[in-house]
Amino acid sequence: MRKVIFCFSGTGNSLRAARIIASQLDGATIVSVKEGVCSDLAADADMVGFICPVYEWDIPEPMKCFAEGLTVSSKAYVFMVATFAAVHGRCFETMDAILREKGTRLHYGRPLRCVASQCVAYEPFPAPRFMVPYSERRAKALGKEIAARKHSKFPPMSIVTRKLFDRMMAPFLNIQHEYDKGFYTTDRCTGCGLCSRICPCKNISLSNRHPTWNHRCVGCNACVVYCPSKAIMFKTPEAYRQLDNMITRRLGLPDKRTRYHNPYITAKDMISDGEVIEA
Ligand SMILES: Cc1cc2nc3c(=O)[nH]c(=O)nc-3n(C[C@H](O)[C@H](O)[C@H](O)COP(=O)(O)O)c2cc1C
Ligand code: SF4
Ligand code: SF4
Q1: Distance 267 CA to ligand 2 centre (A)
Q2: Which ligand is nearest to the Cα of residue 223, counting in written order?
Q3: What is the 59 CA–ligand 1 centroid distance (Å)?
Q4: How many domains, in total, are found in the chain?
Q5: Scanning 126, 186, 195, 269, which has its CA 20 to 30 A from the CA of 262?
Q6: What residue owns the CA closest to ligand 2's atom 8?
Q7: What pLDDT does residue 72 have?
């Protein structure tokens, strides 16, 4: 029977986790979730997985839309691994609710702590040289449990996070389409077009070899961190500046900031539509 993992990833942590987990599943297909991608692979799969980062204490919008449009066999074992840095929020609840609408549910859900990757706001943390080996080991351990089809209750959103969600996260979600107004390029840009090919939201077009952002951005940072010339910069967009809170005040991308992406995941891996991991 078929095993399929649907993966959304911006800086490669989730794709790396998907590969590690798939390698323990006796043969599995990884499908990259991107704008315009739909799949019928889950309809007759006996194992279906979702692996994605936590964004704003929830799952990224593209993963949510993709899961909502999916047919999932009610006989399938369904798991989710959410890569995150500090707060996983309501991501498992969101996915479980989507699945329940389809007559199934999340049988296993685990957060996987990884390097925090939002380089337009901070240096990567914890230090990748310590965090990446930890995430690798942890992903292997989760892969073992998934291979054994372990059932577990997923961790719920904490009471504190639930209380703070509307005040702290809702304002960001309301102005998310303004985020990419912060991007601009320096004269280091060679017009290679990689940013346009790597964007999972098909949000970047090239005119006269110059990238233009088209306001369908989810802030995944793939364009920034995989640009081979480090030519993409970010200044706080007006709507974010007006929010003026402790998060928006941190926004900005100094030239010397580390553009972290997972060290095992290349730009070519990110552009790929998916892969079959053999047993
Ligand atoms: C737009 C954005 C929002 C994020 N929001 C959260 C969050 O709410 N909680 C958290 O713990 N980490 C958050 N992070 C960190 C990512 O979840 C973490 O780095 C993840 O491993 C990135 O996965 P990826 O490399 O597959 O894109 C955020 C990162 C980005 C880019
Ligand atoms: S990836 Fe970088 S160098 Fe290439 S077109 Fe985009 S911004 Fe320019
Ligand atoms: S424009 Fe850049 S940050 Fe926005 S979704 Fe596309 S790749 Fe991600």
Answers
A1: 12
A2: 3
A3: 9
A4: 2
A5: 186
A6: 189
A7: 96
